[in-house]
Amino acid sequence: MIYSQISKKSIHPKSIDLCKILKNAGHQAYLVGGCVRDLFLGVAPKDWDITTDALPQQVIDLFPKTYPTGIQHGTITVAMEDEHFEVTTFRTEGKYTDSRRPDEVKFVNSVEEDLSRRDLTINSMAYDPITDTVIDPFNGLQDLQYGIIKAVGNADDRFQEDGLRILRTIRFACRFNYSIEAKTEISMQKNRYVLNNISKERIKDEFCKIMSYDNSFYGLRLLYINKLLPLVSPLHEKHMPFRPFDADVETKIADFYYEYDPKYVEKELRWLKFSNDEIKRIMFFLNLIPTYMMLLKIGSTQAYVRFIAHIKNNSPQDYSYTLEQFLKLVRSDKTEISKYLFEECADVTVLSRKEMNINGDDLINIGVPVGPEIKRILDGCYQMILDEPYKNNLEDLLKIAENIK
Predict the structure, then answer these.
(1) Which of 74, 184, 263, 318 lies 20 to 30 Å from 226 when distance is taken between CA atoms?
(2) How far is 78 from 10, CA to CA, in rounded Å?
(3) Strands 49-52 and 29-32
(4) Please, what's the largest Cα pairwise distance for the chain?
(5) How far apart are CA 126 and CA 182, in angstroms?
(6) Which of 135, 139, 134 is nearest to 121 (CA)?
(7) What residues contact residue 43 under an 8 Å CB cut-off, 6+ apart?
(8) Alpha-carbon distance 149 to 310, whole Å?
(9) How far apart are CA 35 and CA 57, in angstroms?
(10) Residue pair 208/249 in contact by the 8 Å Cβ criterion
């Protein structure tokens, strides 16, 4: 037990109140895990988890509003006004037959025993906000100070219990730009096939978290050198075509698959359980690349107009955001050709179909029969106003429609 240098001002006051209630009832109570780690790093914790020797029913009896969110594993969610806190009884765990959850848990009275079941040393510290003391049996604070990611106890045991911990190890190394302790890294490689037992949803979630960090290239490099990348992405069995750059997660994932046939990319994204909307946005970027390369080859204002019109009419999200992210993807916004196209053509008006001032009802009113002829004429009108946007008024468009008819 050591005294901390955590500022009480950084701690959620209701989490302190919760610990006081437990301790006044004769129980032990500690903040634990990620919130303790973040407090030492000076980062505002997102979640406030509490561990205690109080049994689940004792926790329920102490607080007026609780939810048995994980009671089979000793976890009760306690509502303190509009805030929610997970309170978990000290426990040890049995075997992980499904490589996800323990087959059984055993409640214990020792916080040290509870900490011994956790994944990484930097996540295995407990803090008593009442006495301002830290329980740190695995030197997590030291590893935090030296920038080391290390498994708790025997790394083989930790990774065989839950293979997802291998990806979590890389995620934390990536998030904090820390190095992985040698024994832990060797164990990751040795036990990497345990990932085959992990659901694709959980793998996808960890992969996206890695890609969300500014340092995502480091995370992918760790996956690659530890022979883990093919287990996350079978398409990347032999190499890692990825370049470090700042963009959103889906743009980075599009870059991750930049060199692959979109048909196989979409198949892998579905295998990884990406949502339909996520796939739509990623695939839009990948399918836009040939159109963009043609734009650069032609290098004309007309080609620029067609390219922008394509994005405006088909983008699954905001046009300007899509264009901004796409230019990050192709890294071409600094080349001479794109500088001309995207700066010299900045004042060129490019209308979307939704902005066209004529519709099917207008065509019906001039005698166009309901059916495919309406679409054909509207398509012709749209192509005309792309080249001559000043004609985007009903009078001129009706004249154009008459000519096409």
Answers:
(1) 263
(2) 21
(3) antiparallel
(4) 89
(5) 25
(6) 139
(7) none
(8) 46
(9) 25
(10) yes
DSSP sequence for 155-203: HHHHHHH-THHHHHHHHHHHHHTPEEPHHHHHHHHHTGGGGGGS-HHHH
Q: Domain spanning 1-146: which superfamily?
A: Beta Polymerase, domain 2 (3.30.460.10)
Which residues lie closer than 8 Å to 154 by C-beta, 6 or more apart? none
In the numeric block, which tokens belong to residue 286?
A: 């990948």
CA distance 263 to 167: 27
User: How is the chain split into domains, by residue range?
Assistant: 1-146, 152-232, 246-350, 354-404
- Report CA-CA distances (Å) from 69 to 72, 77, 86, 87, 88: 9, 6, 9, 10, 10
Q: What is the pLDDT of residues 316-364, one digit of tens each?
A: 999 999 999 998 888 755 556 566 677 788 889 999 999 999 999 998 9
Q: Is the dihedral of CA 79, 81, 85, 87 positive or negative?
A: negative
Rg from Cα positions in the chain: 29
Domain 152-232 has CATH 1.10.3720.10: no
Render pLDDT for 234-262 as a digit per residue (tens, 0 to 9). 999 877 767 788 899 999 999 999 889 99
DSSP strand pairing (133-135 vs 49-52): unpaired
Say if 1-146 and 152-232 have the same CATH topology: no
Which strands sit side by side in the sheet containing 83-89, from one edge to the other? 2-3, 133-135, 126-128, 29-32, 49-52, 83-89, 75-80, 66-70
Torsion sign, CA atoms 167, 171, 172, 177: positive
DSSP sequence for 62-121: H-SSEEEEEGGGTEEEEEETTEEEEEEE-EEE---TTSSS-S-EEE-S-HHHHHTTSSBG
Q: Residue 202, class by beta-carbon neighbours within 10 Å (0-12 exposed, 13-18 middle, 19+ buried)?
A: middle
Burial letters for 212-226: b for 16+ Cβ neighbours within 10 Å, e otherwise? ebeebbbbbbbbeeb
User: Against a cut of 0.85, is the pTM above it?
Assistant: yes
